[in-house]
Write a structure and sequence with these properties.
alpha+beta; Aminopeptidase; 27% helix; binds coenzyme A
Length: 192
């Protein structure tokens, strides 16, 4: 049976944003590259756009997009986030269609100038509604480093429960280990 996540629309609209699935083509890689090429890599230390830093060429970005497609091939979805037609971010999430019915929000990043507007929360709210009412999820999970203060704040403000902290279980691209915060929200806790 096809995972229901594969039947989600190619474009999902929120109040202020549009989430679009983009094919990994050179043209789209240039679009994403142009959006992030002047970003400060330190702003993306906790969740780099590419393996170690922001991609330095369109070719590197294309490879990254292909890798993201590969990660989401069987049970995931990738959406690029647009505000007034300008690309400002990205999200990948997965649906585990087993007895746990879990949607895992795996990656989110916004360009620095888009931080502080509630855009991550707005897309997260939309994905929650999709998870619980379209996909039939019972639970949503998220993770972040204890050092990623902005991310932890954003997840908490979306009403997620901190299940616990797994010590030294994450590894940054520079091989430094970090403590991972595990968050969840159950359908019974979901407020429309
Ligand atoms: C993590 C990340 C996506 C969070 O972005 P964000 O804009 O801080 O998150 P939110 O969408 O939750 O927005 C919250 C902020 O918007 C403000 N805001 C403005 N308008 C708002 C609105 N309409 N609704 C909600 N919040 C609003 C809030 O006051 C808050 O600002 P503050 O943190 O300065 O107090 C961003 O920091 C990022 O891209 N970081 C780099 C990549 C990364 O680390 N990703 C996560 C890895 S786990």
């Amino acid at each position: 049976m096809i995972n229901p996540i594969k039947k989600l629309p190619k474009v999902i609209k929120t109040k202020r944003l549009e989430m679009r699935q983009l094919n990994a083509t050179s043209e789209n890689a240039k679009l994403v590259f142009d959006a992030v090429k002047n970003e400060n890599p330190t702003d993306f230390y906790f969740n780099p756009i590419a393996k170690n830093t922001v991609p330095k060429t369109v070719k590197e970005m294309l490879k990254k997009m292909q890798q993201e497609d590969e990660y989401s091939k069987s049970n995931g979805a990738n959406y690029y986030i647009f505000h007034t037609d300008k690309l400002i971010g990205y999200r990948r999430f997965h649906f585990f269609d087993d007895a746990t019915k879990t949607l895992q929000m795996s990656i989110v990043w916004l360009t620095r100038s888009a931080w502080g507007n509630g855009f991550a929360k707005e897309t997260s709210d939309k994905i929650e509604a999709i998870a619980f009412y379209t996909l039939g999820a019972n639970r949503i999970t998220r993770q972040c480093s204890t050092e990623n203060v902005r991310s932890a704040k954003s997840i908490k403000s979306s009403g997620f429960h901190l299940d616990g902290i797994s010590r030294q279980s994450g590894v940054y691209p520079d091989n430094k280990v970090y403590d991972v915060m595990f968050w969840s929200k159950l359908k019974s806790e979901y407020k429309k």
